[in-house]
Design a protein that fits this description.
Radius of gyration: 17 Å
Structural class: alpha+beta
Mean pLDDT: 75
Oligomer: single chain
Strand content: 5-15%
Shape: globular
Largest sheet: 2 strands, antiparallel
Number of domains: 2
Low-confidence stretches: none
Helix content: 25-40%
Distance between the termini: 46 Å
Amino acid sequence: MGRACFDSSGSEGSACHRHVVEYAPDGILIMDIDGRIVYANRRMMQMLGHPPGELTGLLLDGLIPDEEQKSVVAEGGETEDQLHYLESNRCDEIQGFLFSRPLPAAECERLMREKRYLAVPTVVAS
């Protein structure tokens, strides 16, 4: 059974979710539409060798040499315009409503075990 975060009132709390992201063992960053970093968690700052706050406002391009870049996963592929933008900005994997509605954990696990993947929608540049 999975665990949930609850605030002091007994309901799920956004402060708890922020804590989970901030202290995640993986590097997490959020960029704006122009590719500037608006948030980086502690692990990402450590991975890139920057103190807190220093990454905010920087462009991701140029921070990581091409030979050291790992795959980039984006959450939020909801429109064809977003998909086109992410593909044109070297995003390797994209998830969002454009591909699938949210799935129950059991269904997601089954698809992964069967190595079934959702097709990437065809995007025509406008």
